[in-house]
Every structure is written in C-alpha cells, then in structure tokens.
Specification:
Helix 1 links the parallel strand 1 and strand 2. Helix content is about 50%, strand content about 10%. The radius of gyration is 18 Å and the shape is globular. A five-stranded mixed β-sheet has the order 2-1-5-6-7. It has a single domain, classed as Glutaredoxin. About 35% of the residues are buried. The two termini are about 15 Å apart. With about 240 residues, it is of the alpha+beta class.
Length: about 240
C-alpha cells in the first residue's frame, strides 16, 4: 500500500495528524506500507524571508484574539497526543519552500518522517524560524545530513521544480487543506482523523488492491475515491 501525505511543516493539524497516524499503525500495523510526504504550502504567496508573526496573525485572523481561540483548540488536541505547542515562542511565520525541499532530500534517504518530525518540533515547540537556512541545517544534522548537502539542496536549482509541482498537483485535485492522505493514489482522506477513521481507509485500499468491490467510499473529505495519482516524476 502507498500512502501519500500532503502536508505543510507549519500546519499544526499536520503534526497532530502525523501522531494519530503513528498511533493507528501501532494499533494495526500495515505490512508493506510506503509513506511519502508531499509538499503543500499553506501560504504560497509568503515572502521568501517570511513575515513577522504578529503581522501574519493580524492578516490571517484579524488579530491575536481570534488566533488565541483557535490555538487553544489546537493546543488541547496536541496535548491529547503528547505534543507541545508553544505558539507564543514563534516570532516569524516562514515561507516553507526551503523546508519542503529539505524534506524531499531526507525522504530520498529514507528519512522523510523523521525530518517532518524534526521540523514540527523546531517550529511549534521551540519557535525556530524554519525558513532560515541555518535552522534547517541544524534540524537535519541529527539525521546525518551534512550542512553542505542541506545548503545545496535548499539553495540550488535541484528539487525546486518538483516541490512546486507537488503543490500545484494538490491544488489541481482540489486539495485546499492539509493534512490530506491519498491511499494508493485513489482514495482521499482530509483532516487529522483518529485511528478508527484511518482503519476504514486502510481496509478500503486493501480491498481495492485485492480486486474486490469493498464498501462504497464515503463523501469527499472522509474517504472519497479521488481518481488521483501522483506523477512518477515526483516520487
């Protein structure tokens, strides 16, 4: 089974969704599951250097008050998964293109999920600017990626077009929120769902692999057949 996950490294629900997926896989291991993280930018028009956090919150939510209410809900959901969200420590909202390019490099080394985890922790728990090249170098170091190769990956031309193509692919298929899980290139599930919901999609994908009819897919966002496949060039 192949599981493509469209996500952004500054999306708190993506971190929560990652943890719930991990919990689901501990409860019901899926032999042969191949996970591939796919790039999605929540703020594709973000300046390269990012934006002051207060300015960003004002533009997105109309001020700190609404943001506080939203983040209280996220923080509570995170606590249920033993995740530490320290939103007050975040000084800048970054452009995530470099971070996605780094994830791609790590993924090619079989370390996509650990790299996503490292970036989530750096941003949400320690408030680091993960649009900054040196912050990305530091996040990648524990995974055995050298500073030289990280800088080459995030500043050179290699991999840029592929990451941008993944984001464009998601939007062409109507993905406008993340996390979004694509099972075997055909079944879409949007949102940070509990394991019980993920089990239904695992079962549906397995039935499809076996050539059976299986249950009818649910409505869009809850396990709909997506007629979706990711291009070989972005694998």
């Amino acid at each position: 089974m192949r599981l493509d996950i469209f996500a952004d490294v500054i999306c708190p629900w993506c971190w929560i969704g990652k943890r719930r997926l991990e919990r689901a896989l501990r409860m019901r291991p899926q032999d042969g599951l191949q996970i591939r993280w796919r790039a999605f930018q929540l703020n594709p028009g973000m300046p390269v250097g990012g934006m002051d956090r207060k300015e960003y919150l004002s533009a997105k939510f109309g001020g700190d008050g609404q943001a506080t209410r939203i983040y209280d809900v996220i923080r509570a959901a995170g606590e249920s998964e033993a995740l530490e969200f320290n939103f007050d420590m975040i000084q800048r909202t970054p452009n995530t293109l470099r971070a996605h390019r780094l994830v791609r490099l790590a993924q090619d080394r079989g370390k996509g999920s650990p790299m996503m985890e490292a970036l989530f922790q750096a941003y949400f728990s320690r408030g680091q600017d993960i649009g900054d090249r040196e912050a990305l170098v530091d996040a990648a170091a524990p995974l055995g990626l050298s500073a030289e190769e990280v800088r080459h990956q995030i500043d050179g031309a290699e991999g840029l077009e592929a990451v941008q193509a993944e984001d464009a692919l998601a939007r062409r298929h109507g993905i406008n929120g993340v996390p979004c899980y694509i099972f075997n290139g055909k079944f879409a599930l949007a949102g940070a769902h509990e394991p019980e919901v993920l089990f239904q999609l695992f079962d549906l994908a397995r039935v499809e692999e076996a050539g059976g009819d299986g249950p009818s897919p649910a409505k869009q966002g809850e396990g709909a057949r997506a007629s979706f496949d990711t291009p070989a060039s972005s694998s």
